[in-house]
Amino acid sequence: MRFTTGTGIFMLLALSFTASARENYTAPSAGTTIMDYLNSEPDLSSLAAAMKLPLGFETAFSHTPETNNFTFFAPNNAAFASMSQNLKRFYITPSTRGRAYLGNTLMYHYLPVDVYKTDGGVLFTDTFSRVQTATFLFLGTQKVGEDLVLNRRVKVVKGDIPVAGGVIHIVDGILDPTGMFFDDEYAVPKVKQTFMAGWELPY
């Protein structure tokens, strides 16, 4: 299924209306939102800046009601510093195309509908598994020794940070949707997820 940045934003806004959607709308204020946390954490300043580039992202991630359920993987500053030149060329650019690629990448870090904790024994197990992101593309997950690893290379460095409606896990690399694992994906076990419209079931 082809994904566009607009599709991802629509999914977010369908769950939490933005202030621009209705003139008199008052955004939910209970709890710390994703953007609240990113802006308060010095080691996530690069990500906080990146979230302001694609149209609508900052607003959507600032208004996540407590009734939402999601898991968000937040790349730290070291992840942005070590970004490949190819990623920089496409994602960190003022062009409309560059911002669209950046938005697509950010949505690949977002798992809607479910809150997965690092010690829950669901998202990270000894068996390499797959979980579907907001882009509808799969993300590989596995526990390797004491490390929680995504797409066989990116590690969780700090997990289970509670925010309004979900949880944040800080990771040491940027998850590139074009680097989605290409094993025989339907032979790879799928992490249990709550159904969301647009997903094909059963897997």
TrEMBL record:
Q: What is this protein called?
A: FAS1 domain-containing protein
Biological source species: Morchella conica CCBAS932
Q: Which PROSITE patterns match?
A: FAS1
Q: Which GO terms describe its biological process?
A: cell adhesion; extracellular matrix organization
InterPro entries the record matches? Adhesion/Biosynth-related, FAS1_dom_sf, FAS1_domain
Task: Please state the span of the N-terminal signal peptide per the UniProt entry.
Answer: 1-21
Q: Name one GO molecular function term.
A: cell adhesion molecule binding
Domain (FAS1): residue spans on this chain: 31-175
Any one Gene Ontology cellular component term annotated for this protein: extracellular matrix
SUPFAM superfamilies in the record = FAS1 domain
Q: Which residues form a coiled coil?
A: none
What are the alphabetically sorted keywords of the record?
Answer: Signal
One matching Pfam family? Fasciclin
